TrEMBL record:
The keyword Nucleotide-binding applies. Involved in beta-(1-->2)glucan export. Transmembrane domains (TMD) form a pore in the inner membrane and the ATP-binding domain (NBD) is responsible for energy generation. GO terms for molecular function: ATP binding; ATP hydrolysis activity; branched-chain amino acid transmembrane transporter activity. InterPro entries: AAA+_ATPase, ABC_transporter-like_ATP-bd, ABC_transporter-like_CS, BCAA_Transport_ATP-bd_LivF, P-loop_NTPase. Belongs to the ABC transporter superfamily. This is Putative branched-chain amino acid ABC transporter ATP-binding protein. The keyword Transport applies. Residues 5-234 form the ABC transporter domain. GO terms for biological process: L-amino acid transport.
Amino acid sequence: MSALLKLTGVETYIGRYHILQGVDFEVPEGQTTMLLGRNGAGKTTTLRTIMGLWQAKNGTIALAGEPIEKLATPDIAQRGVGYVPESMAVFSDLTVKENLVLAARNGPLDDAQLAWIFGFFPALKKFWLSRAGSLSGGQKQMLSIARAIVEPRKLLLIDEPTKGLAPAIVMSLIECLKEIKRRGATILLVEQNSHAARELGDQVLVMDNGSIVHRGEMAALAADVPLQERLLGLSLEAHQ
């Protein structure tokens, strides 16, 4: 299967700290690749570097064979890359509607796409004209994800979307991400929830100290508790 995204020798510094230390991996087109690792391993830095929010000092990042490591974040987004940060970045002073209008870079909101999003996240329809800052944490996460998928994306970079969410919302989110993949999107997903990782992951990458230390099938890692404990310090179940 061809790689939609490929990182080769990527190194990223934040101030004097050498965070990514030669990251190499591929994300197969049409699949969901999990990016796992202990806290501080470099997972969020990897997503932010791909998105151009932090610049790689060395190495290459290719999207569909084209280098993007020197591009600005808006130009990367224009190439069909969506990003859902862990911080649930929404515009608090704007309404839910206004947040989504801003995210629809290529024209007016599509009614069919909105109806599809509301099917998974009905709270967004209920609070359509409410300020985003008044939403609960779970509702803000729904809005953050909706912003990333309000238009079709080639690649979605998603950072711990289930963190702090109620189980019912987590299940809706899992079904939403499955449907996004069925519609043809490729997903690179940082996630600590073991159920979400098992349900969503096709491939898995494990980071430690700023580099990739394991790559393989998610199902194989999920079945190997000793390997999980060696790579992650704990079993996947303990990360719930």
